[in-house]
Amino acid sequence: MKGSKEPDFVCPHCGADVPGGSKSCPECGSDDQTGWSEDTYLDGVSLPDPDEEFDDEASKPKGILGPARLLWIAIAVILVALWLFQMLKR
């Protein structure tokens, strides 16, 4: 009965390869009652808490030119323009 063999899978508890049809994990000993039953298949997944506030500012990508850098660039341009104006006045 070679065609009825269950496929191999990964133990959801320790991540080891488990041969198909095994009753327990050869590495950690997890079985259907302690680690890979249908009731526990999402135990290791961490989902965001719906009641927790989400910080939109932290998730936005930071650009190369932030507000502080733009201010310094504007000040530099103004100073260079003033210097050039003084040079042309002479």
Provide a descriptive summary of the structure in words.
- This protein is mainly alpha-helical and 90 residues long.
- It has one domain (8-45, 62-89).
- It contains two helices and two strands; from the N terminus they run ββαα.
- It has helices at residues 56-59, 67-89, and strands spanning 9-10, 17-18.
- The protein has a two-stranded antiparallel ribbon with strand order 1-2.
- It is rod-shaped and about 95 Å long.
- The model has no long low-confidence stretch (mean pLDDT 77).
Briefly summarize what is shown:
This protein is mainly alpha-helical.
The sequence of SSEs as H and E is EEHH
Q: What is the 3D shape? A: rod-shaped
Distance between the termini: 100 Å
Poorly predicted segments: none
- Main sheet record: 2 strands, antiparallel
Q: Give the strand tally.
A: 2
Cross-sheet strand order for the largest sheet:
1-2
Classify the beta-strand content into a percent band: under 5%
Structural class: mainly alpha
For the CA atoms, what is the radius of gyration? 31 Å
Helix content: 25-40%
Count of alpha/pi helices: 2
When the domains are counted, the total is 1
The average pLDDT is 77
